[in-house]
Amino acid sequence: MSIAPLLRAAFGRRSLPPEIISLPHNIRIIHDHYGVPTVEAPDALSCAFGQGYISAMHRFWSMEQQRRVASARMAEIAGSAVVDIDRWVCRLGLKEAVDAAYNQAVADTDLMKLLQQYSNGVNYYLSNAKDLGVEIALLNVQPEPWTPKDTIRIITLVSWSLAGNWEEQLVRCYTLASLGPEQAALLEADAWAYDEKATYHRKRLADGVRDAFVSLAQLAEILPAWQEVKQQANLLPRRSGSNAWVISGVYTEAGKPILAADPHMPLSLPGFFYECHLKTGANNLNVAGAALAGIPGIIIGRNASFAWSITVAGAITAELRLERKADKPVRTIQHEIKVKGQATIIQTVAWGARGPLLSDGKDIMLPKPAEDACNVSLEWVGHRGDDAPGTLWAIWGLNRAQSVEELRNAAKEWGGPVLNLVWAEIEKKGGAFGWRVMGKIPARRNPVEGLLPAPAWESIGQWADGYIPADELPEEISPARGYVVSANNRMAPPDYPFVLSHEYMSAYRAERIEELVKTCIEQAKEGRHYTIESAQNIQVDQTSNSALALRNRITSTFAASSSLSVVHPLAEQALHLLQCWDGKLSADSAAGAMLKMTEDHLYRLIAKKLFGDDTVGRWLGVGHTPLNPSLMGHWRMREVILSLMVCLLPEFQAISAQDWQALVQEAFVAALDELSQQQGNIVAIWRWGQLHQLELVHPLVQAPLGQRLPPAMRVIKKLFMLSRGPFPLGGDEHTPWQASSYPVPAAQASNRRRLWVWGYQPAWRMIATDNGLYHGCLPGGVSGHGKSRWADNQLQDYLAGRLHQHSLYE
Fold first, then answer.
1. Which of 495, 526, 573, 609 gets the most CB atoms within 10 Å of its CB?
2. Integer Cα distance of 310 and 326 in angstroms
3. Which stretches of 156-306 are assigned E, i.e. beta strand?
4. Whether 499 contacts 316, CB under 8 Å
């Protein structure tokens, strides 16, 4: 191990690169005041070279880490602590998905030229750099040349991280085993709706949901012994949410649409995105925004005509299948996993006709139907290799689109992950705007397909009809209402003929944004135009309609009580504060602290009552593998439980009206006890931001919840500046400024840090307007080097909700 880079990193700041960097092929790189690089090049291929260079300069460790994860090679440099990640990469078939995608990519000569030029830029930096980062030095990594296949690996890994449904199918099986078909069906979100005043009412339960549960009940008692989530999961991309909206130019001063966006990811140091600007001399490429290290092009941003962003659609692209044990595997693959300092491990994975077998008689046990016993296999769109090549072309198509048709055609090329594209023609007066779903989604017309694991030997759930044609995916262009809002909610119309998802996130966040957008439109009609500042105010809004609904339930529970002091000495003060609360979850909110602490206790009590101690964590959203530490659908399930509790539906007999009252009271008392112990007995000085904090931590030094870093790692964390914070933070999963926590295992149910913001946060904010402008801010900075000034020079502005102005023409 070379000690020189470590000494330089330990005892000084990392020096900034020259203001102007000249590269081969007449490429120039210029960094602005915030460290955002502009690549100026003669043509698009040269631009890809320059972007590869700056990606390696600022984020090579992120690139190295992700390609190793996707190759099941993390243990090779990090040892046995991460070997389970490598095992699961093999078991889930990610390596085979990469191979399938790469085999498609090599058949496209133009695509391979683009990927090779990007790789050449990465390797040009690697061959000339003296210091690739403290992580490379600490782990003694000898970087291999970057290849086009490495880019395919990263796209495949991101696509997998957003592949919905298969883990949620397991949760439905727990629910079914615990409650039975009739009661379990009542927990499906599609059985519920609420009006604009947020009062709940019942929709007629879909008979198909109930019947599906009944018919599959005999196969549904899946009792997994899958491993508990490891902290090493912090090395990986995770499922996300996002906000994006557009308001028509009818309501802006310039008469042109304004697009606002904030994609959501768990935050760390470095962050998920970096900013850059790509510009060619021929002026056929001029695009800026957020990019991912390892992938050429701009993922979210603007060009000379359009702005666009993405939100997760939650589509069903990965499903479990029940396979008869009598059916022999189609193939068996032996993977070698090298482990630093130890012997090589062999991971054997058998594949059925539909995908890799996840059960081998040890990890997953199934009941034995009369005819025979079953294994469980995983069928994922990515195994066919259909996502990455199309997605790479779609990114570049969006980057260069100059007409609505060019933009729509680019979106139709997108393979995966499945996303909502929100876009606007921001340089044109009266410009078009809209949204569409993009990606490969198996065509399903039966509304209950995908709810539960389907027998592989039966016709139900088969993907025989291929994918939903791109021309038939949901889409709106310039709707008459004058706006588009996307926040991981259901956007397809009720009569849409195909099944897209059963895992939409709860509508609270989308409805709050829509409420604010409608207010802005009404103000515009009165002469106060919608502006950049209007959009910023929506981005940083911390009002939670979900919290207000729960507040009403809590206060009504105690409304008839004449002796609140008997319930708890602080109950009267606390309830008075709640009754006067406006629902704003600011960091200094006492009522917010009380409400969210009560909510945390309440959901655990409800889950324990419904499902017992063994599966509480799974039902609350704790993931099944180190690759995904939380389930995409757990907030949706919480919303359904809240709706049941508010309206006290008689048909839901698993919890009686009296039980609901008792559970609310027990949770409220537990919250008051915990808050008084932590923050004292003066209710008015309690603070949500003391419970709910954000710390940006490098994955190498992030301790599991409830554990302390070893002394040596604490020294490394401090010496190399591998964290920032903690910072008090407002908001929750339902506020426009999303600031959520991951579900935690039962063992950590009382940990003081359990409500910290480990979950989703805006990973970049953007507002795009006319005249070539966009306004953006990262939760940190462009650089992935902890001791660089550009690693955190945007952080304080981010926490304050401020944005930085950039121009395509500077």
1. 573
2. 44
3. 192-194, 200-202, 223-224, 242-247, 258-266, 274-280, 286-291, 300-302
4. yes
CA–CA separation, 457 and 459 (whole Å): 7
Convert the pLDDT of each residue in 231-289 to its tens digit. Answer: 233 333 334 579 999 999 999 999 999 999 999 998 999 999 999 999 998 768 999 99
Strand 765-768 relative to strand 258-266, pairing: antiparallel
Instruction: State how far the Cα of 564 lies from the Cα of 630, in Å rounded to an integer.
Output: 38
Distance between CA 607 and CA 174 in Å, rounded? 11
Tracing tokens 């049941």 back to the chain, one arrives at 644
* DSSP 3-state of 479: coil
User: Which residue from 541, 539, 547, 538 is spatially nearest to 581, judged by alpha carbons?
Assistant: 547
CA distance 694 to 688: 12
Contact 65, 39 (CB under 8 A): no
Residue partners of 359: CB distance under 8 A and separation at least 6: 365, 366, 375, 376
Please give the structure tokens belonging to residue 340. 């630093």
**pLDDT at position 566:** 75
Taking CA atoms, 765 is separated from 159, 520, 540, 799, in Å, by 22, 20, 10, 11
What sign does the CA torsion over 541, 779, 800, 587 have? positive
pLDDT for the residue 225: 25
Are 452 and 430 a contacting pair, CB within 8 Å? no
> Distances in Å between the alpha carbon of 413 and those of 387, 394, 404, 463?
9, 5, 15, 20
- Give the pTM: 0.92
| Joined tokens for residue 36 | 């955002």
**Considering only CA atoms, which of 268, 275, 251, 402 is closest in space to residue 775?**
275
DSSP state of 803: -
724-740 tens-digit pLDDT: 999 999 999 899 999 98
DSSP-derived secondary structure for 680-716 = -S-GGG--HHHHSEEEEE-GGG-PPTT-PPPHHHHHH
- How would you write 521-539 as a 3-class SS string? HHHHHCCCCECHHHHHHHH
Residue 524 CA to residue 522 CA, distance in Å, equals 5
Q: Is 748 helix (H, G, I), strand (E, B) or coil?
A: helix
Q: Report the distance separating Cα 253 and Cα 246, nearest Å.
A: 15
The answer to whether 439 and 414 have CB atoms below 8 angstroms apart is yes
Q: How far apart are CA 420 and CA 108, in angstroms?
A: 26
CB-side neighbour CA atoms (13 Å) of 135: 22
Q: What is the Cα–Cα distance from 67 to 178, expressed in whole angstroms?
A: 41
The rounded distance, in Å, linking the Cα atoms of 306 and 289 is: 12
Nearest to 772 by CA among 429, 427, 399, 262: 427
**φ, ψ dihedrals at 765, nearest 5°:** -115, 140
Choose between 440 and 629: higher pLDDT. 440
Relative to beta strand 37-41, strand 274-280 is parallel
Task: Report DSSP state, residue 779.
Answer: S
